[in-house]
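Morning. Coffee machine broken again, so started the prediction first thing and wrote up yesterday's gels while waiting. Chain of 480 residues, entered below exactly as on the submission form.
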Amino acid sequence: MKARTASWQTVRAVTREEWRALLRSRVALSAVAVMLLLTLTATLVGFEHRHAIESERNRFQSLADQQWNAQPDRHPHRVSHYGHYVFRPLSPLAFFDFGVDPFTGHTLYLEGHRQNSANFSDAGQSSVLLRFGLLTPAFVLQTLVPLLIGFLAFGSIARERERGQLRFSIAQGISGRNLLLGKLLAHALVAGLLALPAFAGIAWLAFTSAGTAPAALLMLAGYTLYLLMWTCAAVAISAFSARARDALIVFTGLWIAVVILLPRMIPDLASHRIVLPTRIETDVAIHKDLAAIGDSHNPDDPYFRDFREKTLARYGVKKIEDLPVNYGGLLMAEGERMTSDLFDRYMQDGFQRQQAQSNWVHAFSPISPTIAVRRLSAALAGSDGDSYARFLNDAERYRYALIQALNRMHAEQVHYHNDKEQRISRNNWQALPRFSPDPRPVAAILGTHVLPSFAVLSGWLAALMLAIALLGKRLERRAA
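Came back before lunch.
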């Protein structure tokens, strides 16, 4: 018990000395102050940006709902072509990591016989400056804080070796392991200080936003692992290098490769390996398939001529005029079913290709933990590609249900003999449900996004901790 107490006291003493050295360095203090201010600014800007976007989308959604309800009594088929707008909601944690949101559309126009693309991305509407990227807490913690950790810790061991202090410390009875643990603890506390504003924002949302706590806690745990990993890397490289200059060069090279090069090169390689068709190519292919499956507006079309005969047989009548429902509404419903199946097939094919690209990129996470933490971060913030695909799927299901409800009104409330001249009450479509997608539960991404990312980060951290243990023994041997 006394040995354990003495060991912990030694680690604390090393930690205090390292902190004193950092406090005596004006460069280190200035760098920490600037980075802390940057993290705080990014957090506040993220909250404000998300609040502004959410308020704007809620305002436009309310306006679209008012315009929908303000339609006069009219034919239901006219209502289906009048259409309706829906807007993609933002999760509370989107303030931390906007992911793909600035580059994907957030507004969908829903109408009959068509599946439109989401429009009005932030990057497409804003100045050129926005296209360089938003200042988010995720960007600061993923990219800038690890670099500063390296600049503060690269000389923690190597500089003492150059000055001869390392041999003196070990000669006094400080083990190499305790020395490295003390240095690691000192710089881990610095990393925690730099992340404090962003972590405080996440923790605040965990307590104030219903249902956010599980994702917020996982976000905190993931970034804690990521920053600890970089702290271990900086201390291990310093312990391995003969000179402080060498440690700085090695750490900077590692940071450039892992944080800058690989996360940008691998997606480009994925896009060349798995090619996505352009929107124009997809539209042309859909147009050809639509022409092949039949035209509901052509009474002589083979498919819909057969559909008419089957409908008459099902109701036991010989003429369309004798049907107890409006054949025009049945025809529109069948045409909508066929075209929606076609639209959905192309949409799901596009999602599968995008998922294949993402899987190919994520396969490189073991050599670039930045890719892993980005996957974790965007998924928990609800701003990744899968969240966007979920929005499109939810909107398409809502669109189909909306149009088919109007087609049922057409079939059941409008008479066939004077179809085009009739109107029905606007109360019918005012009573239809509004678009209100459920948020994606954390359980849905736990096995596909969260756990694989945690595995990568934990693996890196475990490997680096093992390296630090081995380097501690190496320091003792060389000092003997």
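Residues 1-5, 123-132 have pLDDT under 50 and may be disordered. Going to sketch it on the whiteboard this afternoon.
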